[in-house]
Amino acid sequence: MLRREKFRRYADMATVRDYIEMLRRDASRTVDPEAPPPLRSKDPDDDYLIALAHSQNAILVSGDADLLDLVGGAPILAPADLLAEPALGG
Questions:
Q1: Which H or E element spans position 19?
Q2: Is-contact 60 53, C-beta < 8 A?
Q3: If 0-12 CB within 10 Å is exposed, 13-18 middle and 19+ buried, where does residue 76 land?
Q4: Which of 62, 63, 76, 90 has its CB surrounded by the most CB atoms within 10 Å?
Q5: Spatial separation of the C-alpha atoms in residues 67 and 23, rounded to whole Å
Q6: Closest C-alpha among 63, 58, 56, 69 to residue 81
Q7: Between the CA of residue 74 and those of 21, 36, 46, 82, 85, what are the distances in Å?
């Protein structure tokens, strides 16, 4: 997905390759959540991501407007907000 042309304005292919390699090296895998999400998005397809983040006590990072509308009710950050947060990556 990150290799799609629409992302070239954000990152060149070398950066994308480095990012994918970092994910392969450092990311953790988990099982699908069994519990429903603690809150629901306007888009039912997003509820899985909310449940997954909740089950892992993780921050959900997304540019999706339906998810960002839930900010305050769940730990959801826009990518720029994550990068600006010193304790999280900025």
A1: helix 13-26
A2: yes
A3: buried
A4: 76
A5: 22
A6: 63
A7: 29, 14, 13, 14, 16
* Distance spanning both ends of the chain, measured CA to CA: 24
Residue 64 has phi, psi (to 5 degrees) of -70, 125
7: Cβ contacts below 8 Å, ≥ 6 apart: 16
The mean of the pLDDT values for the chain is 86
Tokens at residue 47, please?
């509820």
Residue bearing tokens 């994910």: 23
Q: What tokens were used for 15? A: 């950066």
Q: Is 69 helix (H, G, I), strand (E, B) or coil?
A: coil
pLDDT of residue 88: 62
Q: What's the Cα-to-Cα distance from 90 to each of 5, 14, 81, 83, rounded to whole Å?
A: 26, 20, 9, 4
Tokens of 28: 């953790």
